């Protein structure tokens, strides 16, 4: 009598073991490896990819995306999302250029205050009115886009008399671009908040397990509000930087950054379910997108096919993050309980 071997359960157990081992590897390692592979492939495809001019092009594009992504990272860390960054960037862009003509350098702090206010409103719509962040920020993003078109339905150029003020972003210090220096300063700001402050660590706690965070005495409402304020701050700074770089405002400026900012965060290894990731992950994710965007143009990938590749990359990153995702019920604390904080 022939003995029949049943390998199904054994294979399933081996597959589970492999997945657990992979889940134990920090996602940042996969992201860095992907970045290295992309650089090698594009360099093989075109030797000019690593030229000084092209590297500067990548850095300039990535700088804006990184600033938006660093802001977007905070709502994602608490398990939310901010779809209003595009509308806010468009609104800030035209407001900045228009106000620059009348109030000069005060346009910079004005736009920062407007950005913080928008973030505060987003946070309160989530925590007070109890509308999920996806719907809340989608709505406020649409409102901000309409306001941008009301301020200026067409792109508006900055007057030549204000070019000296724009040098705050476009100028150089000791041969280094102010745009890159400002990006480094924004990165340091977010990194310090997340790594060395109590409110920054609370973002991780709330995103990992909102129930235990509430039981530990963390102010859930304040933490969530703070996350959306940081998101709008990043979008506002990015809008100012972009407007200075192109010497004008555009009511459609932020449209492209809505999904790209989310992709930069996720591709870098921050989980959409919240609780894991950070500023360094977002830097790597923004670099991956910047390298891919530039590299595909350099090697001659069809423009209509590029979005398919970027979409596939985002889906792959999300699938990888599923191996490290937390249990869904860990984030199921009701808003009624949160209000008692």
Approximate strand percentage: under 5%
Discrete helix count: 15
In N-to-C order, the SSE pattern is HHHHHHEHEEHHHHEHHHH
Strand order of the largest sheet: 1-4
Q: Whole-Å distance between the termini?
A: 70 Å
Tally the structural domains: 1
CATH topology (fold) name: ABC transporter involved in vitamin B12 uptake, BtuC
The percent of residues in helical segments reads: over 70%
Helix and strand content put the structural class at mainly alpha
Q: Based on the structure given, which CATH architecture is correct?
A: Orthogonal Bundle
Radius of gyration: 22 Å
Number of strands: 4
Spell out the key features of this protein.
341 residues, mainly alpha, ABC transporter involved in vitamin B12 uptake, BtuC, two-stranded antiparallel sheet, 15 helices, 4 strands, 2% strand, globular
Provide an overview of this structure.
- By secondary structure, the protein is mainly α.
- It has one domain (59-339): ABC transporter involved in vitamin B12 uptake, BtuC (Orthogonal Bundle).
- The chain contains 15 helices and four strands.
- The strands form two sheets. It has a two-stranded antiparallel ribbon. Strands 2-3 form a two-stranded antiparallel sheet.
- A hairpin with a 2-residue loop joins β2 (172-173) and β3 (176-177).
- α5 (107-127) runs antiparallel to α6 (133-151) and α5 (107-127) runs antiparallel to α11 (220-245).
- The longest helix is centred in the first third of the chain and has 26 residues, at 52-77.
- Mean pLDDT is 85; it is low at 325-341.
């Amino acid at each position: 009598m022939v003995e029949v071997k049943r390998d199904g359960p054994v294979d399933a157990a081996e597959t589970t073991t492999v997945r657990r081992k992979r889940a134990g590897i920090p996602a940042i390692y996969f992201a860095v490896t992907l970045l290295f592979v992309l650089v090698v492939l594009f360099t093989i495809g075109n030797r000019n990819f690593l030229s000084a001019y092209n590297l500067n092009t990548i850095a300039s594009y990535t700088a804006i995306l990184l600033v938006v992504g660093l802001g977007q990272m905070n709502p994602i860390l608490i398990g939310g999302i901010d779809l209003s960054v595009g509308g806010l960037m468009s609104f800030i862009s035209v407001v900045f250029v228009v106000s620059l003509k009348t109030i000069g350098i005060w346009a910079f702090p004005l736009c920062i205050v407007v950005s913080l206010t928008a973030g505060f409103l987003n946070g309160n719509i989530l925590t007070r009115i109890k509308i999920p962040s996806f719907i809340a920020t989608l709505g406020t993003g649409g409102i901000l886009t309409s306001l941008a078109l009301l301020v200026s339905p067409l792109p508006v150029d900055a007057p030549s008399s204000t070019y000296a003020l724009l040098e705050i972003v476009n100028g150089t210090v000791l041969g280094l671009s102010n745009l890159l220096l400002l990006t480094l300063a924004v990165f340091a700001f977010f990194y310090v908040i997340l790594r060395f402050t109590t409110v920054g660590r609370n973002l991780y706690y709330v995103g990992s397990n909102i129930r235990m965070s509430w039981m530990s005495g963390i102010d859930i409402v304040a933490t969530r509000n703070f996350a959306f304020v940081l998101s709008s701050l990043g979008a506002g700074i990015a809008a100012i930087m972009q407007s200075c770089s192109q010497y004008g405002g555009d009511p459609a400026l932020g449209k492209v950054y809505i999904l790209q900012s989310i992709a930069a965060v996720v591709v870098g290894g921050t989980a959409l379910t919240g609780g894991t990731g950070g500023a360094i992950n977002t830097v790597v994710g923004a670099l991956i997108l910047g390298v891919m965007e530039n590299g595909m143009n350099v090697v001659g990938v069809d423009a209509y096919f590029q979005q398919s590749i970027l979409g596939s990359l985002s889906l792959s990153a999300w699938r990888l993050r599923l191996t490290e995702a937390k249990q869904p019920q860990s984030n199921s604390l009701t808003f009624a309980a949160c209000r008692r904080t």
